[in-house]
Specification:
two-stranded antiparallel ribbon; two-stranded antiparallel sheet; 19 helices; 4 strands; globular
């Protein structure tokens, strides 16, 4: 009788060690996530996150990316967010700076190593600046100091620098833990699992909040779980979407004979951008309202009036906000997909391999053809991301009582719609990695069929 995949997985010493290392590192991360920054006032952050304003929405977004550590304002309050920001900045700079683009095209492997090295280097100043910005901006928006006496000048300067160093070190520690998981645990899933663990850890608190709602908790939770299951099904369906472009690869010479050309396919993803457009769109939408909050009490009448209108226009509880959010997510999906695809330069790579798309010339014409195809299939992916982004608002329109039971749109789901993209994507990739490891160790039946 064939042993089950789980038993086979646990009986293989190498696979068992990788899983135990991954679980152990995640437990360590969650433990350190509760070590607070000295002198922090958690009530200020909690009150700001639950305010329902643009600032509260921004706090929720950063808390999502940080793996649920911001509300604790621990030494890991920024999570791996500075690393992700540094990575995005370098990716956007490559097509803009010709020397960087030439480096990536000449030797892709060395280019990736260069990109990875400078991402780590750029993460350090990004983490320090983010720490200063979080403390100052959150204190201003909340109307109370997050850390008493924080300042880079004056008698508390040494203590403030110590806090910045500790938060920067916490970010680099989280990145290091993610790299340990990728190297010794489940391959290439370290940073995703770090964020995944923080999102999942918040489910019990969201359940408790729904259970104390004004309406029937059983009805509310059941309906929300049903919506989440349907959403997960759609996410998996779209994330699996591919457009297989036919490619003819040249035959190989075997002795004095030449083999026939080989027909293959080049898969293009429907949603290549992942959840990055949601982060871009939400961060930019919060900017006008947050900037307006600094001038809302201005002595100049027209400045205060303009700030008030900006806050009302970009209020997360307004319908216009969600329309802007949808349009920005769709626009950023096309923009970020174009940037990523241009960096991969399939036209030149296929030309070097001697491959050709039937009916399309090699090189630049191939790249233009693939770009046109990718933009067409990106449309449903972009509309899908936009719908996922505004899903809380759509649900509150369809089922108004859920907003009261869930404590508002920000805490409507057990896992936010943006968080679902991370959770589902991480589970899928982890599942595929484990399946590949099982095959390498001689387990014949694929998990994908079971």
């Amino acid at each position: 009788m064939r042993r089950s995949a789980v038993r086979y997985l646990w009986s293989a010493p190498d696979l068992r060690r990788k899983i135990l290392i991954t679980i152990g590192i995640l437990v360590l991360y969650r433990f350190v996530a509760h070590v607070p920054v000295p002198g922090v006032n958690r009530d200020v952050i909690t009150g700001l996150a639950n305010s329902g304003t643009a600032a509260g929405t921004l706090v929720g977004l950063i808390d999502l990316i940080s793996g649920g550590t911001l509300l604790n304002f621990s030494v890991l309050a920024m999570g791996v967010y500075p690393y992700i920001t540094a990575q995005i900045i370098l990716q956007l700079l490559v097509p803009i700076i010709p020397s960087l683009q030439a480096r990536m095209e000449e030797d892709p492997r060395e280019g990736r190593k260069w990109m990875e090295r400078w991402t780590y280097i750029l993460s350090i100043p990004m983490a320090a600046l983010t720490a200063i910005g979080q403390i100052n901006i959150f204190s201003t928006l909340a109307g109370a100091q997050v850390i008493e006496g924080f300042g880079l000048t004056g008698p508390n300067a040494l203590g403030s620098f110590t806090i910045i160093i500790s938060m920067t070190a916490g970010t680099m520690f989280a990145i290091w833990l993610g790299e340990l998981i990728s190297e010794y645990g489940i391959r290439n899933q370290g940073l995703s699992l770090i964020i995944f663990a923080g999102i999942i850890a918040r489910i019990p608190a969201n359940l408790a909040q729904m259970a104390t709602g004004a309406l029937s908790p059983v009805l509310s939770i059941s309906l929300i779980v049903l919506i989440m299951i349907l959403t997960i099904f759609v996410i998996v369906y779209v994330q699996q979407g591919r457009r297989n472009v036919p490619v003819m690869y040249p035959g190989r010479r075997v002795g004095n004979r030449m083999s026939m050309p080989v027909k293959g396919t080049l898969p293009l993803m429907v949603n290549m951008a992942g959840m990055i457009p949601l982060i871009f769109g939400q961060a930019l939408l919060q900017l006008p309202s947050i900037m307006a909050s600094f001038f809302i009490n201005s002595d100049t009448v027209w400045v205060a009036r303009l700030a008030s209108r900006a806050q009302s226009l970009f209020d997360p509880n307004a319908g216009w906000y969600w329309l802007f959010y949808f349009l920005m997510v769709v626009a950023f999906s096309f923009f970020y997909t174009d940037v990523l695809f241009a960096q991969q330069n399939y036209g030149e790579n296929l030309k070097r391999a001697g491959a050709q798309i039937p009916g399309v010339s090699r090189g630049a014409p191939t790249q233009r053809y693939l770009t046109r195809v990718l933009r067409r299939i990106t449309l449903p992916g972009a509309l899908f991301l936009g719908t996922i982004a505004v899903l809380p608002y759509l649900v509150t329109i369809a089922f108004p009582f859920l907003s009261a039971a869930g404590g508002g749109q920000s805490s409507l789901f057990l896992v936010s719609s943006s968080g679902l993209l991370i959770v589902v994507g991480t589970v899928r990739e982890t599942f595929f990695n484990i399946d590949a490891e099982l095959k390498l160790h001689g387990y014949e039946e694929s998990l994908l069929v079971r």
